Amino acid sequence: MSTMREAHPVGPLQRGLQVMEVFGVAGGPLRPADLVTATGLARSTVDRVVGTLAETGYLRRQGRDVAATPRMMRIGNLYLSGLDPDGSLARRIAELATALDESVSLAVPDADGVRIVGQSRHSRSVAVAFKVGDLLPAERCAPGPIFAAEWDEERWRAWEGRVTGGTDRPFSIVPATEPAAVPVLRGRVEDFRASGWSIDDQLIEPDLVAVAVPVRDAAGAAVLALSVVSHTSRHTPGSLRAYARPLVTACAAEMEKALTHRRPGGTPAPRTGAGGELKARLGAEFLQSLDRGLAVLHAIGTRPDGLTISEAAAATGQPRATARRALLTLAGLGYARETGRRYRLPPRVLDLGYREVSRLTFEELARPHLRALVAKVRDSASVAVLDAADIRYVARAQASRLMRVEISVGTRLPAHVTAMGRVLLAGLPDTEAAALIARADRQPLTPRTLTGETDLRQAVTAARADGHALVDQELETGLRSIAAPIHAAGRVVASLNIAAPAGREPAERTRERLLPDLLATARALETDVATFATHQPLPF
């Protein structure tokens, strides 16, 4: 395997990835001084790395703080898409979770750990807290013995060294630190080899039990582990295995068949990095080597079977020598895996901010966009989702006005009298929208409120055709609102609005004044939502 010893490592790329790793476990925004402490880098170096990552969209400045953006999830999304390019694995675990009414997870081996790469939770109020991207120690979960059964002696020695000597790997739960864990895992491996099932009896957490089976590739290697997790109030490990066995066995067989028939992806889309324009504008403050290295990392993720050095150079528009140095640096740091002459993304790329950003609430996801919009238009802005015949506010930024509408996250309003509601109804099929309008309580709230079914259906049709809706004093006298849709996966999932006092300004003038900023913000938020929701549900 090629390593950094074969070529000088790309220093800015190393340091940039180091900073991204810190954001992967940060738990929220950081100040540059925090990054200096966490990385050991000089303040001037941190400032240049942060500046480059902010200019290229991976970080966002929030006053004196710096926060990771959903763009941090893109490389992780590429890795996950390479595992499940057609979404068939995700569909199967969702179907299995529904059939069993238990949480189901899919995991891959990651050195001496287990990486969760797919999950479907049951609908109970007490659910598994782990998420896609989490890293679990092999000795404390059901999939661990499955993957450990294929470790060579070098890997076993490395794991034993980690148990007895500690680790700086960002595990989501505390790994074992007692020598007694060594014979326990070896014994669990032998049990798995004998039965074909791996059991976790409250190792990962008290009161949780889990069973897991391997999903093997055409060569017979365990490339995935399919797990079912339950609570001790419902199952013992033995009863869970007996209950889940028929469906889990069938699901694993279907997954193995899907893996066997999988084909490599097509030609990677070119991505050259921000490059010349930013370098020309920012000079030495912009680390072009970091930007180019991230472009190479992105490129090798566009094909599940990876890229050769020449293909990576062609995909990024970089000289072959430049792409080679980046790939060797990435491989030496564990962020690219060389197989033959091809480089692929390993699961470790999920440490580059994916896990932490994926924990954002929708309010946290929308807040920077709403605050920026309010700063521009000086009126309040909100995001809402459809909840039966109502809208429910999920994010809001309030303008600084003496007179303002007192609405908070969680507030519900009738959909048919609000601009956001009409946009959300416009995202439904006509029959569904008409049914919601028909059963709504259409009492007039102001003299301007539309109450007739025909009038409301026409207003929804207009919102669908126009791509936005304006409601003038139908909810409350003196209040005017304009709203636009937020799309994800080809459907309307939320709506963004600006609420302004009606005053003496004509409604059409309000539309002309606010619509451009509203639509621009909607598209920016939509980009973040699409990135966030690529491999997980939106956190409404």
UniProtKB/TrEMBL annotation:
DNA-binding in keyword set: yes
GO MF annotations, alphabetized: DNA binding; DNA-binding transcription factor activity
Source organism superkingdom: Bacteria
HTH iclR-type domain mapped to chain residues: 10-77, 287-347
BP terms from Gene Ontology: negative regulation of DNA-templated transcription
Entry keyword Lipid metabolism: no
Pfam families: HTH_IclR, IclR_C
Key words, A-Z: DNA-binding, Transcription, Transcription regulation
Cross-referenced SUPFAM superfamilies: GAF domain-like, Winged helix' DNA-binding domain
Cited InterPro entries: GAF-like_dom_sf (IPR029016), HTH_MetabolicPath_Reg (IPR050707), Tscrpt_reg_IclR_C (IPR014757), Tscrpt_reg_IclR_N (IPR005471), WH-like_DNA-bd_sf (IPR036388), WH_DNA-bd_sf (IPR036390)
Domain IclR-ED residue range list: 71-261, 348-531
Protein's name in the database: IclR family transcriptional regulator
Organism per entry: Actinomadura rubrisoli
